[in-house]
Amino acid sequence: MTNPYTAPSASGSAPKWARKRYVLPALALALFIGAGIGAGGEDTKNDAKPAAAQPRATVTMTATATATETVEPEPAATVTATKTVKVTRTVTAQAEADTGSGSGSDSDSVYYANCSEARAAGAAPIHRGEPGYASHLDRDNDGVGCDS
Predict the structure, then answer these.
(1) What is the pLDDT along the chain (148 residues), one digit of tens a residue?
(2) What sign has the CA pseudo-torsion 101, 105, 110, 111?
(3) Do 137 and 126 contact (CB within 8 A), yes or no?
């Protein structure tokens, strides 16, 4: 085998690898020059005679856009719930006149065993300090007996 880095002998042509070194770049250069000439000015073809104006078909394009407006729903109405309370007539029992027994105060003269008796007498609801009020009639201890 011969050394590729030695000088070629004068007896023949250059080895294959030496030929490729010159041929391939020369072909690439010729390709680029040919492409440049071919792509250059197309207007040089018709320099001899100007082309007469010829009628051509005209294309008209119409575009129509449809816009759809989206209506946002109105917010729901605010509903306020109110409770109507019916007020009943309140009757305050009057203390009966003391007949002279002198045994107790006016609040001892009226006594209701339960709320049914107080309602039947027309005294319900009974407030603390009124005649007929007793702690056994006031379940929630709010100062009003037979309130419900």
Answers:
(1) 677 777 655 556 666 666 677 788 888 899 989 888 877 755 555 555 666 667 777 888 888 888 777 778 787 778 888 888 787 776 676 655 544 444 444 445 788 889 899 889 888 889 998 888 888 888 888 889 888 7
(2) negative
(3) yes
| Whether 138 contacts 148, CB under 8 Å | no
C-alpha distances in angstroms, 24 versus 14, 16, 20, 38, 52? 15, 12, 6, 21, 47
Q: Look at the pTM and tell me if it is higher than 0.70.
A: no
Tokens 């379940």 correspond to what residue? 139
Distance, CA of 13 to CA of 26 (rounded, Å): 19
CA angle 12, 15, 17 (to 5 degrees): 160
| CA–CA dist 120, 114 (Å, integer) | 10
Token pair, residue 89, equals 């007539």
CA distance 126 to 135: 11
CA angle 40, 45, 50 (to 5 degrees): 130
Instruction: Give alpha helix (H) positions in the chain.
Output: 16-39, 115-120
Handedness of CA 95, 101, 107, 110 (dihedral sign): negative
Q: End-to-end CA distance of the chain, in Å?
A: 125
